[in-house]
Amino acid sequence: MIVLLPPSETKHPGGEGPALELDRLSCPDLNPVRSDLIDRLIELAGDRGASRAALGLSAAQDAEIDRNAALRTAPTLPAIRRYTGVLYDALDMASLRGAAAERAYSRLAVGSALFGLLRAGDPIPAYRLSAGSRLPGLPTLAARWRPALDPVLADLAERDLLVDLRSGSYAALGKVAGAVTVDVLAERADGTRAVVSHFNKAHKGRLARALASTRSEPVDAAGVAAVARRADMRVERRGEHLTVIVAA
């Protein structure tokens, strides 16, 4: 089983690892696109105004542009430790120990606008590029990534069950036929339901933690739902789609 997470806009700074080496990342078939996007971001960082426009930044966020300028020289962290925010707080990788941590590192992956697909231990620098960013002279990132990423994800899906927790814009970078997908709905006292916005990420983080650390090996959506229920989550299943129900 592979649990495919969205990235986060916010990232831990610094790192203990050496500078980025694409050959050390998983999915080497993605390296040509990775290298091209890295070079374009480094070049773009030389024009702060163009960088702000392309990346949706304000002048107060120019440190993000500096990160992009240093993509090939900055220290690295494992991908699962690089990303921060609500989902990653709920996942709480740092608290997993022993066999549970080993299982998490083998099962977790992250969809990335810059790297396409990362496994949990892949060493990466801090960067700024979102799925909705539009780099000068390029088509959309979805158009850039899909020819390379679709076959990589299809190959993974042939060998492992994929649980796709990515948001819509990141799911568009690479399609996964047959993946288990998940949404989160809040149920009001009268029984009506509404889409959860901000805390959607927290509940997906809880689910990711349960799936990453469980001793069981789910092979289908029913197995994923069973793991979620053992983690005290209320889940409904329709085919390969799961809905996590939370109190409004």
UniProtKB/TrEMBL annotation:
Q: Any transmembrane segments, and where?
A: none
Where is it found, in Gene Ontology cellular component terms?
A: cytosol
Q: A Pfam family matched by this chain, by name? A: H2O2_YaaD
Q: What is any one GO biological process for this UniProt entry?
A: response to hydroperoxide
Task: Please report the name of this protein according to its UniProt entry.
Answer: Peroxide stress protein YaaA
Q: Which organism is it from?
A: Mycolicibacterium poriferae
Q: What is this organism's lineage?
A: Bacteria, Bacillati, Actinomycetota, Actinomycetes, Mycobacteriales
